[in-house]
Amino acid sequence: MFIGGLLLSTRTVFALPLLLFFGILLSKRVSLLKIIGYGILVLVGYVLPLVPFFAIWPEQMQTENPFIIQGTNLIPFWVIAILAVIALSIGVGIRSYDRQLGIFYGGILLFAAGLAHLIWCAATTSFTEAYLNSGADISYLLFSYPFFGYVLLKED
């Protein structure tokens, strides 16, 4: 979970697989204390890499931190909220936890977020600007590949 916080501190899109995981924990009836413990580990992993930047450049980090930059430039908040609800819903909906299924859905969520970003950028500018002139960050589509690769290469 600490690594999830580290990933979250670099790209907020990693909140989607984390929400999926917390939804799975809720569906498995994991104790609230354990879920809070996982949440604290994520929070510590998120905060630790950012502390030096806030200590050295406090004014700049209040206006240019990862959540502000990514939250205002990529896709609107309502799209993020819909994806977050979907992530929690899928996690809660997985009755018998299958690790590979959870990882696969995490990849689907990351790919959906990257695709939403690409579509939003193309809709607000143009396809040429979004895709060919680097208006959209297509690396967000690549974040899902390790999830899919793990599922495809994992032998039972």
Rounded to the nearest angstrom, the radius of gyration is: 17 Å
Total count of strands: 0
Helix content: over 70%
Roughly what is the average pLDDT, rounded to an integer? 83
The N- and C-terminal alpha carbons lie at a distance of 24 Å
Number of helices: 10
Classify the secondary structure makeup into a structural class: mainly alpha
The secondary-structure element order is: HHHHHHHHHH
Largest sheet: none
Number of domains: 1
Outline type: globular
Low-confidence stretches: none
Portion in strands: under 5%
Note the main attributes of this structure.
156 residues; mainly alpha; 0% strand; globular
What does this structure look like?
The protein is mostly helical and 156 residues long. The chain has one domain (2-153). 79% of the residues lie in helices and 0% in strands. The chain has ten helices and no strands. Helix 6 runs antiparallel to helix 7 (99-124).
Brief account:
The protein has 156 residues and is mostly helical.
Q: Would you spell out the secondary-structure blueprint of this structure?
A:
Elements: H1 2-10, H2 15-27, H3 32-56, H4 58-63, H5 66-73, H6 77-93, H7 99-124, H8 127-132, H9 139-142, H10 145-153
Helix pairs in contact: 1-3, 2-6, 2-7, 6-7, 7-10
